[in-house]
Design goal:
The chain is mainly beta.
């Protein structure tokens, strides 16, 4: 499908277009406030990859006006193209926050620090209706015009798009959005690349599907579909990630970091309403408010309802919520260091799995460490006699390998259970038992397995994929039996 870039190439391109991806280690949270006290409303749409600014819109005397915000300057009106303009929003922002694009009075606009807001250039395309995204280096945008949809480079190159753009990756080599085959009544998620056919994905067979963001290498795109917390992965297809509770709906994965390892969005709360969330493979889906609190940063009585964007390095997030005294919508911005999201990042040669999905039966989830276990009970789906737990992973690392190490931490609630661990042999197309031992009752058991170069993982374009399962040997189904899996991880050692 899409061509996956080698890790080195990805990192090199990210550094080139994002200037610096070194995460800042401090943690903070800011409400952005309002332009107009009698009309207390503001929305945060995009955050700069430099992590200092965001753009969106706020009411000013009634209509909405594009804004820029930073903790130093506060909220700033960017003004209108024309005095009589009614309404507008900032949609895209450069790395340094000094250039912002968007819409003003139903026309595309551009704001530059020092020169203000003006009509977007490119009149040869017809009237520019909206400029929806700007690359970090401020060289390229995706836009709507009366005559079509385009990738517009300020150096002069204009490329027609075959999808309706919503966002681009850092160099605009990929454009995420939607595609309609029937004139607009039904839409599919669509990912455009100049050198490859349009990738069209319809997640639920519904009438409106849309990609909202894309990783730097085009391998991961987020869905903003108000159904499940799901994304599209070029090798795995549609992947369902856990919401805040089992079976939740009304969830949205809205934005992804450049490396594809940090996702942000919104998830439905059990009692109603929504919460801004962040997801990584190691920590699962968590409320951003809870993460900030755990790091010593309080949001007070302000509710974080949605996260709309995340910076390229995965540390700076913006979104919307509400708080006292009016509880009207207000934008917010925060920073969460990557070390708080990846408790295993200090391990040498550790490769974080992009996904670890339970595919047996109809139970799915991702593994989260630190005693936040997935539990599986005999007699319910999946039953161990008919559908053992199966865990599949993909990760990114260099092409050459000397050794592959697996770690799995698990326990059971009853004694007398023999369990085995199997790996999938990609040459034999079958499971191979690699370990068997007695399960430990109510005690974490860390099983470490090491394998030389072999057939237990496949390599392609800088990626490695392996498949592992845990299952009981005897008894097959013990009444009241529960298996508890805390996490599964691997590391790759170069030759």
């Amino acid at each position: 499908m899409l061509k996956a870039l080698e890790l080195f190439t990805v990192l090199t391109s990210l550094l080139a277009c994002s200037h610096s991806l070194s995460p800042l280690e401090d943690t903070w949270f800011h409400r952005i406030g309002f332009l107009d006290e009698p009309n207390r409303t503001s929305y945060a749409i995009r955050v700069s990859d430099g992590g200092q600014f965001l753009t969106g819109y706020s009411r000013l005397g009634g209509p909405f006006v594009p804004i820029r915000f930073s903790s130093v300057t506060g909220i700033e009106s960017l003004g209108y193209i024309y005095f009589e303009d009614q309404g507008g929003s900032g949609r895209g922002i450069s790395f340094d926050g000094r250039t912002i694009v968007g819409e003003s009075g139903h026309e595309g606009m551009i704001w530059r620090e020092g020169s203000g807001t003006s009509k977007f250039p490119g009149g040869e395309l017809g009237q520019i209706m909206d400029v929806v995204h700007l690359t970090p280096d401020a060289s390229t945008v995706a836009l709507y015009a009366v005559g079509g949809r385009y990738r517009f480079m300020f150096e002069g190159k204009v490329t027609p798009l075959s999808n309706k753009p919503v966002a681009t990756n850092c160099d605009a080599s990929y454009v995420a959005g939607r595609h309609s085959a029937d004139g607009g009544f039904n839409n599919d998620g669509a990912l455009w690349c100049e050198d490859l056919p349009l990738v069209i994905v319809n997640e639920l067979g519904g009438s409106f599907e849309q990609f909202s963001d894309v990783s730097a290498d085009g391998a991961i795109a987020t869905f903003s579909n108000n159904s499940q917390f799901q994304i599209w992965h070029e090798e795995l297809g549609i992947v369902e990630l856990p919401g805040l509770y089992q079976g939740s709906t009304g969830n949205n994965a809205l934005a992804v970091s450049a490396d594809g390892e940090v996702l942000v969005g919104t998830c439905r709360e059990l009692g109603g309403g929504t919460a801004a969330v962040i997801w990584t493979a190691e920590t699962g889906t968590r409320r951003i408010k809870d993460v900030l609190t755990s790091l010593g940063v309080s949001t007070g009585n302000f509710f974080l309802n949605e996260a709309t964007d995340v910076s390229a390095d995965g540390t700076t997030i913006c979104g919307n919520g509400g708080g006292s005294p009016t509880f009207t919508n207000e934008g917010w911005m925060c920073r969460i260091p990557r070390t708080a999201l990846s408790p295993y990042s200090a391990r040498p040669n550790y490769v974080k799995p992009i996904f670890g999905s339970i595919t047996a039966g109809d139970r799915r989830g991702t593994f989260k460490p630190d005693d936040d276990r997935e539990e599986f009970t005999s007699g319910v789906t999946p039953t161990f006699s008919s559908a053992p737990i199966t865990v599949e992973f993909s990760a990114t690392q260099a092409r050459t390998y000397g050794k592959l190490d697996f770690e799995i931490e698990l326990q059971v609630n009853k004694v007398g259970l023999q369990q085995s661990i199997d790996l999938w042999d990609w040459d034999l197309n079958n499971w191979v038992q690699v370990d068997t031992r007695a399960a430990k009752k109510d005690q974490d058991q860390l099983v470490s397995l090491s394998f030389p170069l072999g057939h237990f993982y496949v390599r392609y374009d800088g990626r490695v994929k392996a498949r592992l399962r845990v299952k009981p040997n005897s008894p097959q189904s013990q009444p009241g039996f529960k298996a508890k899996v805390d996490y599964v991880a691997w590391k790759v050692t170069p030759p």
